[in-house]
Amino acid sequence: MDVIAGAIAFVFQWQNLLALAGGTVYGIIIGVLPGLGPSAGMALALPLVMSWHPATALIFMGSLYKCSNYGGSLSAILVNTPGDASNAATVLDGYPMCQQGKGGVALGLSATSAMVGGTIGMICLVFAAPFLAEFALRFGPAEYFMTAVLALSLIAAVVQGATIKGLMAAGLGLLLSTVGFDVITGHLRYTFGWAPLEDGIPLIQALVGLFAVTQALVLAESAKSISRLAKLAGGFWEGFRSYFRHPAAVARASLIGLLVGVLPAVGQSSAGLLAWADAKRHSKHPESFGAGAPEGVLASETATNACMPGDLVCTIALGLPGSVGAAIFLGVMIIFGVAPGPLVFVQNAEVIYSLFVALFLTSFLIFAVGMMAARRLAVVTLLPNHVIVPAILVVSLLGSFAIRNEMSDVLISLAFGALGYVMLKGGFTPIPLLLGLVLGEMVETNYHRALLISGGSYSVFYSSIICKILILLTVLSLAGPYLGPYWKTLTQGEK
Amino acid sequence: MPGLLRTIAAASALLAAAAFAADFPSKPVKLIVTAGAGGGEDVEARAIAPFVEKHLRTQVTIENQPGAGGKIAFEKFQKAEPDGHTLITYTFPKSVIIEYQGKAGFRTRDFTPVFAWSRSSQLLVVNGETWKTFKEFLEAAKTKTLAGGLSGRGSTTHLMGLIALDELGVKVNWVPYEGSAGSVAALAGKHLDFTICLATSAVPLIQAGKLRPLLLFSDKRDPSLADVPIPKDLGYDMSFIPTLRGVEAPPGTPAAVVKVLEDAFSKAAQEPGFIEIAKKRKIILQPVGSKEFAALVEGVYPRIAKFEPMLKN
Description:
The complex is a heterodimer of chains A (495) and B (313). With 495 residues, chain A is mainly alpha-helical. Chain A has 21 helices and 2 strands. Chain A has one domain (2-489). Chain A has a two-stranded antiparallel sheet. In chain A, a hairpin with a 6-residue loop joins strand 1 and strand 2 (188-189). The longest helix of chain A is centred in the N-terminal third of the chain and has 35 residues, at 103-137. Chain A is globular and about 60 Å long. Chain B is of the alpha/beta class and 313 residues long. Chain B has 2 domains: 2-120 and 243-312, D-Maltodextrin-Binding Protein, domain 2 (3-Layer(aba) Sandwich); 122-234, D-Maltodextrin-Binding Protein, domain 2 (3-Layer(aba) Sandwich), CATH 3.40.190.10. Chain B contains 12 helices and 11 strands. Chains A and B meet through helix 3, helix 15 and helix 20 of A and helix 2, helix 3, strand 7, helix 7 and helix 8 of B.
């Protein structure tokens, strides 16, 4: 307890509060731009903080890392361009809310999500990190494979209403996930000799195409503005209040985000998508999802914000980063003389707890920044299309280029923009495609790895207790919609 | 007549080289990193760059080109202007492995080696609850096929695993991951029997007693893992492929320019500021000059060629 009290006193020194605020604002700005994620942001800021006190520097880097995700939600909501892959699902309902003039409400929801999701995640990180890390280690390839299958079963919920088209999109997503270097066998697949595809379909570049470019094309069809009302209805506080009307959805989204974060081999970008799909399945009005349902923004953003502290669990408690961003943060910590691992809570307790206190505070700081900026930012949705369309295209394609300094990535974005436009006009939603694209590799590589370890025996997929639970959950997830009414009849004796 | 022509050509080349060197560097130098921002290669490049700037008296800008594991960057680099203003840094022999994995539009032996500042060694690690010594491990490995984790197919850990296996006559089910975090986590959770990784990725879990290092693939012990034996200690005669981080210039860079660059990089690597960062990241500094670097590049080809079929599948 003394350590925590000391850490609180340390964080409240003026230079640390300044570093905290600076990291938060810098992180949000970095997050808004699609090509600049937390990884590039931290790498760019490293020379600046090299001479600082280690704990101060880590507070700056930590808040930068944590807040870039919120920045990404701003561009996702306002101009249909996810700032990072994790914000993909925020686009689905955030942007339609803007079109209905409720941009301010959506921004209120995302800021509240950052505060609540981030706080829930941090509580788990502070009090359960060693336990959660131990749990994560029990997941081997077979368990990861079953987790991915469970996640894929959510596609069934997403495609409700347009099953055939949804499954077609999911199939396309799975197919696209096989493009590139097969990490297990070392073969190149479907690259047609074009080197930029050897790493697989680059996710952010594809998202920029599917959302930003597609939307720019749609906007260019009319001379109005994003908000069809030409005025703003409802504000930030309405979003704040409506957030707390859905406590069950908040709890489920936080849990999903935390789990995705804690398990190192589950891609961070899937947290928001899975939470969104799960919220749709549990909703009483699933048809409103994708057409401006506040719960959609809530689920996606709460999950992604709970995911980041979850991601730090294994990074700090085991020294094993679960994502690219976490790997870079790990590198930063080592440079400042803090070696993450099981012993870090003993050897560097002061620094680690100062970092935790600071990350707690950033959640509230994000909310304050969001509150001040929402009204001004929402005005973007009132700008005429002939101003906003070129701006969206320039910024998003520049971002797409900047990730790998590759002109070919701009082509990839444009190709996905064309695909997105055709899909939109044909009545397809991009979500099943994204779920397939994000989960496909996880399914395939872990299936392959599990069989390599077991020497070809399929029993590896059901031998552990975790596998058995996951299989049960998958069966329930698929059969739930049919069993639900039956269960009701049985218990209530109606009809 | 042809002799005379050749002399004139050689003389003019020399003159050109001298002229090059006199006004080199005439603009900022671009250092290409064949990996994303923030990774090991990137951090080392960004750590040494300010010190190189000091000795080269020009700006050094870093450009990350991680596409296709660096292949795109290498292919562009093959055709880059050889005036010393475009340089590349990567973990050698990554580029040679890429050449052997499939069609590649570049040849590492064409590049002009400048200077390498650090080396790294692979470590064989097992779960702390299993074998205590390398001898016990080897006996187990000879009785049943063990599952061994790699940080990637075609990575330097893969190559070291194949070499060790070759020399010991052991059969292994290799399980490639993407990066060492995955294979180390799977080992800590006892899903794998052993893992080969860079020493740095396993140190936290080794210190906590969860993992146990059995063998360091090197001809020198690592000061940060002083009690881990090397093959020589156990009576094995293994050959290693050097894993180096350094910088190269495009094919055909004039010797005079290489000299200026080599001096700047070698002085930068001796700066106390750089040494301190290296120490914190447990980077083992070992200067390798351009001539020695070139010899290493040549020497690596036949040895990787031996494993070509296994690297592919």
